[in-house]
Fold these 3 entries.
Entry 1:
Amino acid sequence: MESRVLISAVFVIACFIAESYAFVVSDECKIGDGWIAMSTADTAEDSEENPEMAIINLKPDEIALGKPFSFNLKVCAAQMVKPDRITVDATMPAHKHGMNYTPTVAFDEESNSYKVEDFLFHMPGEWEISLSTFQGKAVTHYTKVVRVN
């Protein structure tokens, strides 16, 4: 009986470690074609080797006003742990308002990234996309300003 409990405990720990290592900064977190970096208050977004960053697969020039769109995002964190929860939103700082719709965020196992759907910009101008990751009591906020015409 004790050996079954020990084997089960080792299995659970191994699964947790395997899932955690999926979020190690790797080639998947380098900024490739079509991907742009989001910055935190503590980091610059221009570093491809930044251990604490998020990247989004978004082409602002291709966004149509008033039409929902989707994009992928990846969280590249030194802590190597998949966040408990992620939220994504956008605001127009010049007008002090946000979007009229609430986007959905879901993890996609196949691409090892998050799929954000139902994003909709209803006005032209500068929009600040904000991403928040929650891990236990820790929260990290990322932002990226995009111009939509």
Entry 2:
Amino acid sequence: MKAFLKGFGIVVALTIAGMILATVAPKIGVWVGLVFLVIPLVAVFKPLPQLHLGHRAFSASVAFFVGLLTTAASYGLVSDTQRLADLRATDPAAYLAELEDRDQTKWLSELEDLAPERYAIEAAKVAEAEAARKAEVEAADAARKAEAEAAAAARAEEVAATRQAEQAAKVASYIEQLDREIASIPGVQASKYTGDVATINTGLLLIGAWALLYEEGNALDLNDEARQKRQKFRQLLVRKQMELLPIMRDAYGPAMRQQLWEADGSARTIGAGYRTVEFVSAAFARNANIKQIHLEIRENLMMLRFTRAQYKWIKQASEFSYYDMDVPKDSDIVKWERDGGYRVLD
């Protein structure tokens, strides 16, 4: 089966090659075809190779078949070419009429040589047809482009409408939240956030949440009424911060004193506005302990807006270590970042 398929493929390939040669170069095709026709005759007198077809007789038959087809096709084309050449010389009009049906490109070329006036007319028709085709293509392209632009504009309008609706929903939700906070802020009592370190930290989280709510308004398209409401919220928030933070700082000393009691330590807040916190512990005889403790609580101290933290190893020590801290005012609305960094919100 494999040998048959191989032989069949060779036969087909030789046949196709012969037809191509007959079409491209008919005169050469005649000679090549004759060569293939001669091969079987030579095989009568001298053994020939098998041509990879498995049998010398079969190889000779294939050569004869391919040669016959190639010679016939090539001769036919040569004869037709010669006939057209004779017709061109004897009857140009008939030659052009027959050529017009066969090959438009060659017909126009011959028409230019044999009938210049008619060629000018036909060339004008071709140019007009080409211009019409080009105009049709351009019109189709323009229509597609206009359609695409219209679709893009429709999508853009749809996206814009969706975004506008989402923005309106966000603004409505934001205003509702402002209304709730404006109503609740005056009732917030400092005493709720002074019991211990955990409740003091809860108070700090509440102030931070208010600041984030205020900041959210920067990203929204608020109308005049909403901006006035946001400004009212700001005023209430500033007043509440100025009320809460000093009380929470004052409570921080006793709250830390509770935590340090088991370690024989103490803490207190002193100074105007309770801006200084002082820690006392025997562990603070070592600078490494001071640094470690301060790094652990520094962010918390800054959020309470202490300006100084002092560390003594005994209460009566005249020399002690301290850290000054750059913190915002109690009236500043602040967004806190990592490591005690912050940004004051306008």
Entry 3:
Amino acid sequence: MRLHTRPTVATASLAAALVALAGCGNGEGEGTDTTTTSSSSSSSSSTTPSSSASSTTESNPDGATAIEVVKNFEKTTNDLRLDPMKETGALGAYATGQAYKQRTFTIRQSREAGESHRGRITVVEATASRQSATSQEVVACTDVSARRSVDKNGEALPSPFDRLERVYTVEKSDGAQQDGKWRVTAEEATSEC
């Protein structure tokens, strides 16, 4: 049981604010403009996603889009974990490349091992930083406390954190014969948030 949730949330908020400030005023044309979104979250085991408020800045209008892609990526992953009959191809609407391969492999591996899942992972706070005209980096704090996983014998699979920070690369496919949509191309779990 974790007794210091409030300071962690404050620390995560402070870290997000520092990330946002770090992207300001770098003097480069392709700099890192930021967009932040957050949601209120409680520690109840409700599986209903929290509502969120998004903000955009004129200097990074695609930031809100990138954050929404990350939220849909996580929502679709949740749906696939909760319903083992759903095809993993649905993830292709929000991910491609390494991120798609990594997530679909993990989901298939979990299914083959006979694991089952209850509850959802939710994005509670996210910041998007513009890397280029077609690339955003999204740093998100995900709440994993409501998710419960069990192995084929019904034994609980431990989760080391209640909240986990993940860094996503979200890119727009704008080349010839591409659809122009934003998708997660890479992700990495970095630390507790």
